[in-house]
Design goal:
This protein has eleven helices and nine strands. It is globular and about 45 Å long. The strands form two sheets. It has a seven-stranded mixed β-sheet, sandwiched between helices. A two-stranded antiparallel sheet has the order 6-7. The protein has one domain. 46% of the residues lie in helices and 17% in strands. The longest helix has 18 residues, at 13-30. By secondary structure, it is an alpha/beta fold.
Length: 283
Amino acid sequence: MLSLVRWLSRWPLWLLHALGSGLGWLVYGLSPSYRTRLCENAALAGVDGAARRAAVGEAGRLVAELPRLWMRAPGQAIEDPVHWEGAEWLQGLLDQGRGLVLLTPHMGSFEVSAQAYAERFGQRQPITVLYRPARQRWLRDLEATARARPALATAPATLAGVRRMLRALRRGETVGLLPDQVPPEGLGVWAPFFGRPAYTMTLAARLVQQTGAAVAVLWTERLPRGAGYVVRALPLAEALPEAGDELSATAINHTMEAVIRRCPAQYLWGYNRYKTPRREEAA
């Protein structure tokens, strides 16, 4: 499998995206549960049919571009064009001299977001990204090595990983996480997401509240025909309350909704956002 990933990493981005689009539709056609979930989640958010169909191919493109992003040498820059919007505003947050929490939804190429930040700002303020290790041994080992890059560290979604992120913020560094990822039981609250209760992590708001860090949204749009990416830095749609897990989770979900509405075709509607976390995940 690793040999296949290395081979795919040498393909140009436009060809990987073409392959990924086909794979996205293949999975959509072969998996009734995935197809139903994607359609129901998109319909709940008011996404029209054209954007919903586009999201099928975009999900496949997300997976297909990973070999190209993961397998290049650690010190090598992203090979495809990366454009920025809001970089000056983000620089202003960094100039404040405190930690920074970056929130990135399951949207566009979220793998590029952290790498692009590290390349542009990491020398001054490194980033630590929270991730959930894969279940497959070979993929878990690949993630651990491919995601660790200069000025970019990773932290597993465990208590040790959370402590690592707290230490990074207290050093005045940056951390990144996906706030629309369903956390283990006991580490979230139920809050509305597109009008339906979704189990939402409390970690993002608590990191801000406990460290006094700044907070921003960072997401990456995938450009058509392999033309590269646009990384966008944005403020939250509404300020985080000073306390209250439910209020904070609701405010963050409102921000995620506003960002997703900007480009609904690149959100992972097939992600099981409304699932009930199982007790055994809480470790």
